[in-house]
Specification:
- The chain is mainly beta.
- The chain has strands at 3-7, 10-12, 18-25, 32-39, 46-51, 58-60, 68-73, 78-83, 92-100, 117-118, 122-126.
- Helix content is 0%, strand content 48%.
- Strands 2, 4, 5, 6, 9, 10 and 11 form a 7-stranded mixed β-sheet that branches.
Length: 128
Amino acid sequence: QVQLVESGGGLVQPGGSLRLSCVASGFSLDYYAIGWFRQAPGKEREGISCINSADGSTAYAGSVKGRFTISRDHAKNTAYLQMNSLKPEDTAVYYCATARDYYCSDSKVESEEGYDYWGRGTQVTVSS
């Protein structure tokens, strides 16, 4: 059974950090680009970061660049999103998704096009 499961969300104070994980089961992430998306209350879902399988290159939306870092561990079939300097406006449900034979870039990071498998999301709340 193909599945993506996010974890690591929670409540954190402004300026704090969280690391999200995205574990894949039922398939290998080796041939997939991985994207992280988020949906804040009352807003549309937006792409914030992605990492390619071929060369490990990454891309970030302007809203998170310099604060968030995406990575992947092929051996663990897992992707991560390290989130630092969190702000209240980062509050959202965070999703990971995968796109086979897809090359993401800065110009495509916010798009959902090409992503086929999605996790159910993990809640991140940034509040004092």
